[in-house]
Design brief:
The complex is a heterodimer of chains A (113) and B (114). Chain A has 113 residues and is mostly beta strands. In chain A, 0% of the residues lie in helices and 58% in strands. Chain A has strands at residues 10-14, 19-24, 30-38, 45-51, 56-58, 62-67, 72-77, 86-96, 98-103, 107-112. In chain A, strands 1, 3, 4, 8, 9 and 10 form a six-stranded mixed sheet that branches. Chain A has a four-stranded antiparallel sheet with strand order 2-7-6-5, with no helix packed on it. Chain A starts with 9 loop residues before the first strand and ends with a strand. Helix content of chain B is 0%, strand content 50%. In chain B, strands 2, 4, 5, 6, 9, 10 and 11 form a seven-stranded mixed sheet that branches. In chain B, strands 1-3-8-7 form a four-stranded antiparallel sheet, with no helix packed on it. Chain B starts with a strand and ends with a strand. Classes of the chains: A mainly beta (113), B mainly beta (114). The A-B interface holds A 2-8, 32, 34, 36, 41-46, 49, 89, 91, 93, 98-106 and B 4, 33, 35, 39-45, 48, 55-58, 88, 90, 92, 101-108, 110.
């Protein structure tokens, strides 16, 4: 399969620890944010989303935090597992008449046994 | 429920040729977006179709064009292929409208331009 994220920043965490992946977004007009997980040879997989009128949202083992003041988004993964190893992308949706989606450059998460 | 499917899986074309990539959206979804993902980079938004009309476009030249059909499947057409068009092309579908923005991606089509 193809390689995703050959030269991306890498976060290495021990299995069972919590992971925090950060993302800075660019546009004040962004009204919706999403985190995706991408494994080699596959399309991005939706993890969790958050609208701009919220600052925190929780899912199963994942939490997304949004700080609009500093245009910062983070993904927290609790009790990281080997299956969490992948490249993680944040994405923002901009609504200005029409729609536009902007993805971040990605972070590779490596889970150490 | 059927997920997003794309065809073909892999494709090799020569510079200057034209290519058509196809996407079938997830059952019940009326919105399709197309992305280009170069190796080692994040997906770049090409455009989005909602109920057969383009309602969003990224910074791609007009030689990138698309269609959405009444069954909400979609095509991405690229004319006058350039070497830099070599990438993974991803299709994503969503329910659309004002509140349903969650996108589901297909596995992608790997295009190689020689």
């Amino acid at each position: 399969g193809e390689s995703v994220g050959l030269h991306l920043p890498t976060l290495s965490v021990q299995e069972g620890d919590n992971s925090i992946i950060n993302c800075a977004y660019s546009n004040s007009a962004s009204d919706y944010f999403i985190w995706y997980k991408q494994e080699s040879g596959k399309g991005p997989q939706f993890i969790i989303d958050i609208r701009s009128n919220m600052d925190k949202r929780q899912g199963q083992r994942v939490t997304v935090l949004l700080n609009k003041t500093v245009k910062h988004l983070s993904l927290q993964i609790a009790a990281t597992q080997p299956g969490d190893s992948a490249v993680y992308f944040c994405a923002e949706k901009i609504t200005s008449g029409t729609y536009k989606y902007i993805f971040g450059t990605g972070t590779r998460l490596k889970v150490l046994a | 429920e059927t997920g997003v499917t794309q065809s073909p899986t892999h494709l090799i074309k020569t510079r200057g040729q034209q290519v058509t990539l196809r996407c079938s959206s997830q059952s019940g979804h009326n919105t399709v977006s197309w992305y280009q993902q170069a190796l080692g980079q994040g997906p770049q938004f090409i455009f989005q179709y909602y109920r057969e009309e383009e309602n969003g476009r990224g910074n791609f030249p007009p030689r990138f064009s698309g269609l959405q059909f009444p069954n909400y499947s979609s095509e991405l057409n690229v004319n006058a292929l350039e070497l830099d068009d070599s990438a993974l092309y991803l299709c994503a579908s969503s329910l659309g409208g004002q509140t349903q923005w969650e996108q589901y991606f297909g596995p992608g089509t790997r295009l190689t331009v020689t």
